[in-house]
Specification:
12 strands, single chain, two-stranded antiparallel ribbon, alpha/beta, 242 residues
């Protein structure tokens, strides 16, 4: 099954075991929670970079639409809340007395507009929101926005459960949280290949992995709020219950 993920056509391959044992039971639980709450349900899907969470979130919408109809369902990402490229190319952080350009660590929490994300999440509880989008072909936030108005909203992002200043407050806007555990070795190849699909050389993609993605993986895995549900991306690149 092909899905459009941030401007790329990605082949989504999941086993029948994953669908029947993991994904459909989750969707049934989400429906029950939406029925009990009586208004919009917000679901967080958090995971390290490279776990395929964006593809998975879109696939979950696909199988929801094919199997259920009691509520409307949307899948969105926090990637559109990155600071724009021109901002990342002109602003720095200091780490270990070193001045680091934000664009060199793009994808880390410091490169997101956390205040705008918090505002959007707070508004989403009771109203429709125009949600910013990210285009990986352009490596920048898109000028387009999408209206989020569904009964069930699944939001995916690396840092949604991050247990750090400001980010840790996001859990207050969540009705159900899911976290995907994965081994760093499983993720390395995926992330380098993803960078190369965006036109980056192998050398530059590997350098970026060492400088940014690898650090982000460790940061996500070691410093997150306790999720309601834990999944594991195993060595066969299959999602199983934790």
């Amino acid at each position: 099954m092909k899905l459009n993920v941030n401007g790329f056509n990605i082949e989504a391959n999941y086993t029948e075991q994953e669908i029947q044992s993991v994904f459909l039971p989750l969707l049934k639980e989400i429906i029950k929670k939406r029925e009990k709450k009586g208004k919009r349900l917000i679901v967080f899907l958090a995971a390290p970079p490279g776990t395929g969470k964006t593809t998975l979130s879109l696939f979950l919408k696909k199988i929801y639409d094919e199997n259920f109809s009691s509520f409307t369902f949307q899948s969105i990402s926090i990637d559109g809340f990155h600071h724009k490229r021109n901002y990342l190319l002109s602003n720095y952080i200091t780490d270990d007395n070193k001045k680091i350009l934000l664009n060199d660590i793009k994808g880390s929490p410091e490169t997101f507009d956390i205040e705008s994300l918090k505002t959007a999440l707070s508004e989403l509880e009771d109203s429709s929101v125009l949600w910013p989008m990210y285009d990986r072909n352009k490596h920048d936030v898109s000028e387009e926005k999408t209206e989020v108005d569904a009964d069930i909203v699944l939001i995916e992002g690396n840092w949604l459960l991050l247990k750090e200043y400001k980010w840790k407050e996001l859990i207050d806007f969540c009705d159900l949280s899911i976290f995907i555990q994965a081994d760093e070795a499983v993720l390395r190849t995926r992330l380098i290949e993803r960078k190369m699909r965006g036109g980056v050389s192998l050398k530059d993609a590997t350098t970026f992995y060492e400088q940014s993605d690898n650090k982000n993986i460790n940061r996500v895995l070691t410093n997150h709020n306790t999720p309601d549900i834990t999944w594991i991306l195993n060595n066969k690149k299959e999602i199983v219950k934790g």
